[in-house]
């Protein structure tokens, strides 16, 4: 009897251990499956990012049954968009959002485009744009969606891509002022300055609001067009309206570098001796009452050019700071009368 009891106990212990082992194995298998799926999804995203849509499609098909989880559906939406299947992209996106925006189906394309833009999903945006171009929709709706796509590239300083999508617009309809600004900036990039001047003037005519990015972009255009007064005014607006913005910091660093470079090229006489040959004097006539600061110019240079002292220039221009003069600043070079 004792031996029989010992055998039963040993058997039960063995079965119990096997049961525990099996119970521990199931969650581990599930975890491994989830991990494999996550790795595959990351590979699909990588192929989409480099524009290999065919390989991304193959990997997605290899997943077999696609679980209705947010991440899988969002990647499916991105894949469908890259394939120019806008309807499939929207359907997958709605499912990913758990139908929370199902009541907004007419507007889902803008929500989806905003998502693609925020995540910088360029192949998806390109494919979606192609589907919009070939779709039979109203001119106003097409303009709005193409403007959204162009704006996305504009905000990332992708000037040529922004120009391409903006040029697909129907300019006989209503056009966002930002379109003219972005096209002006791209024209500067391609050294088409006459075109840039025409476009920036259109932008200034129709603009109604500004932000730090548009102010900075307009500043770049006017600087390239050698219109310092407008550029200076935009720089002032940046510093006043958006003092802590990254574009404002970029503007401050740019002007600071220019001042440092100017000081290196033409230090004050107390630091080093300049050539004994004087700069040609210009008469103090009524037409020469003011001088517009150009790149690398300093008060010391102006004093030599106009035959005055730096102290006089400072007294005639009490608002300027000797080491903080921006390009385009108007400097009085004759006494007040």
Key features of this structure:
Membrane-bound Lytic Murein Transglycosylase D, Chain A, 2% strand, 337 residues, two-stranded antiparallel ribbon
Percent strand equals under 5%
Oligomer: single chain
- Widest β-sheet, arrangement of strands: 1-2
Given helix and strand content, the structural type is mainly alpha
What sort of overall outline do the alpha carbons produce when their principal axes are compared?
A: elongated
Average pLDDT = 75
- Extract low-pLDDT stretches: 1-30, 101-106, 268-288
Distance between the termini: 128 Å
Give the SSE string: HHHHHHHHHHHHHEHHE
Estimate the helix proportion, in percent. 55-70%
Keywords: Signal
Organism: Glaciecola nitratireducens (strain JCM 12485 / KCTC 12276 / FR1064)
Signal peptide: 1-20
Domain LysM: 289-333
SSE blueprint and pairings:
Elements: H1 2-49, H2 53-62, H3 70-82, H4 86-96, H5 108-118, H6 122-134, H7 139-155, H8 159-166, H9 177-189, H10 193-206, H11 212-224, H12 228-241, H13 246-265, E1 290-292, H14 299-306, H15 310-316, E2 330-332
Helix pairs in contact: 1-2, 1-3, 3-4, 3-6, 5-7, 6-7, 7-8, 8-9, 9-10, 9-11, 10-11, 11-12
Keywords: Signal
Protein name: LysM domain-containing protein
Pfam families: LysM
How would you describe the overall organization of this protein?
The structure is a single chain. By secondary structure, the chain is an all-alpha fold. Helices cover 65% and strands 2% of the residues. It has a two-stranded antiparallel ribbon with strand order 1-2. The protein is elongated, with a radius of gyration of 33 Å. This is LysM domain-containing protein.
